[in-house]
Amino acid sequence: MPVPAGLDTPARAHRLIHGAGHLGSPGRARPATARDTSAVGRPAHGVPGCRLRGRRRTGRRHRLPAAHRTAGWALRLVQDWLADERLAESRLVIVTSGAVLTGAEADDRTATGDDALVCAPVWGLLRSAQTENPGRFALVDTDDSPASARALARALASPEPQTALRDGIAYVPELVPAPRTATDEGPRRLDPDGTALITGGAGSLGVSFARHLVAEHGVRHLLLVGRRGADAPGAAGLSAELAGLGAEVTVAACDVADRTALAALLADIPEQHPLTGVVHTAGVLDDGVIPALTPERLDRVLRPKVDAALALQELTRGCDLAVFALFSLVAGVFGSGGQGNYAAANSFLDALAQHLGSTGLPGTSLVWGPWRQSGGTTAELRGADLRRMARSGLVPLRTEEGLALFDTAVGGRDAVLVAARLNPEASAPPGAPLSRMPGHGPVRRALPESQGGDTLPERLAATPSGEHAALLLSEVRKEAAAALCYTEGESAVEADRPLAELGLDSLAAVELRNRLAKMTALALPVTLLFDHPTPRAVAAHLAEQFSRSAPQAPATAAVTPPGATDGAPPAGSPAPGAAADSLSALFRTAWARGRAWEGMALLTIASRFREAFDSADALGTPPAAVTVATGPALPRLICFPALSALSGPHEYARFGLTLQGLRHASVLPNQGFLPHEAMPATLEAFVSAQAAAVLACADGEPFVLLGRSAGGWVAHAVAEHLERTGTGPSGVVLIDTFPGDNGSRTEDGPALSAMTVGMLDKAAQFASAESDRLTAMAGYLERFSGWEPAKLSAPTLFVRAGDPLPGIEPATAWSLPHTEVTVPGDHFTVLEEHSRTTALAVHDWLGAPATLPVSGPRRTP
pTM higher than 0.70 for the full model? Predict the structure, then answer.
């Protein structure tokens, strides 16, 4: 593909020799590494060996639900694999057939079947799983040849993360510069008399490309489609601007994934201006690391990408299209930590474009790197996010670069192209494919090696035992500085300062856990940094682990994904865990069997045997607050985490970074979630202890209490207690707080509220055999059972998440007096990728002098 004139050298369009587009290259095929495969296929060290499942082929009519089902199957499989402590030293290999193309197949324009479309989301999701969990997963795609059947054992034993077998030869992925050739007929231009449709037309990318199609491609009839249509911010101004350039613009509200609604929209296009171009930019983010994802969060992201793209393709099949462009993202190619669902959706787009090209229909999937934008999917990125991207070799594109790459891509013959600025000298996350730049050979993308020639276990062995603690602490601080993108290095990370205060959110925690696992060669849980919140605590835990275990050679298991109807774990199958009958495993079994209440009852009974305190005095020193922001504005914010198994101060890391320099914000942990912490014996003991901690944290300044989800219960209950003692808060903020269980019953037992069901669902994905967090969650839900909030003197702000979670009703209106504001995001993402808008909404409310007193703590008569 030609490089657009005037662009910097690193800004390139790269042909995708990878995944659902191309995999391998005809001139670069190389055999898989041969190893002893005697352990493959039978149990070793008590770990299950190979598990093979057949996959039925599916017809075109069923490929959409099949794509959802295989993605959901892969998510369950990966979560179960990570949750089983017995498999910590094992690697899972997912085996597919016909899911990817090698370079030779793509060059021959080989037709791709529905298998590629069904399995593509599996490859995308697994690439992200590889990024989050280096060395734990591999992907193999094979053909039906006897030679490949014989080579499969070698591929299973190979350390390669992604392999395709064709006639017994193993191909591995590369990125290569796109050739400087166009189609034989020359690129088709968009007909000025035709209509160009842009989905996500009011989004940042949609707006840029609407202007570009009018100004550079001569388009005079635009159909901009989005969920809000003409009500979208900026839609009227954009229409007027493009009208001034001679274009007729129609802005329509339509859910493109709804085939009926889309068909009606397309039917309204005037015959004299037929549809000649489609640019599908729409998408939804719902980021979360693999253990935190749910089937609902997966489907929510797949729908606007997968369902909408298929509906567009099938309903425009009879149109004479010059352009059918799908906007994908590098998450589907490289894998992206915290974006497994988004990677799955984008991999499907790549497979669909390849399928269309092989059948002679127009179709181009542009696999975009990050853009420099003021809106869209990069609008909420922090400085640390951008530095992490740059370190991984991805530099944000300027708008003019992206537009030029689009022109080049739709004028070429390749169906799938990576359009990104790549820095070949940068390191990158693990699990990503090979990257090839001009003049360079393939380079494995991996984490930077730790300093020093010897491994950490070797250095510990050569160090006197009395110096082990200092060595481990130093290494933890170095790795934390790297994961948090602190250029000052170790000196920027204080040994006893909570990592959440330094900006450790869920994604940074995954990266730091991976760095520490690589450095130590230990199997470390996903919640390592939440259970051990300071560098010194992490170092102490590593010392304990070194004293109890040693690295073992990995075993390998292989699984073939199911088709449209099979492959789900058998109902009631044993749940994974440290042992088949551990508390966490039994809870997961109950959840898998649809017996949520009984699983909850199991955890509740176990929580009653926890060490407990019956008063604030019995607890002693109040829990230490974690400071996530500092600033001059008053009142200061004191936040409470939710009461789920995965909750903690890290929930507010991104929220606090937005408030940095504006307002002091602290987080008070809830007791009992960390190892060896006591639980409150009663709700009153808990509330009085947290009230004492609030006053210590406020230090005489006016304060507002804030909580998300069930953390809102804590904020309100503590506010009630403080008002009774005459030291009430200036206000209370409830972020998407659901009502509690109401005491009603079903045939299976007491009815559980939507919020409780959501908490249990996330807990069922909790990758740990430890019971502290699970029993703490259950214990707190029991403490709050039957609790009813009382009217406060202090004003209340209810922050409602604008996007509902599929299958979970949105929070009902808070029954007590309050002010309400709706913010972008759902129940989870309001404090994740949408944390900036949430924090600013709270900050603005706190700054309203007519609403909040700021002279001191609010006192009731």
Answer: no
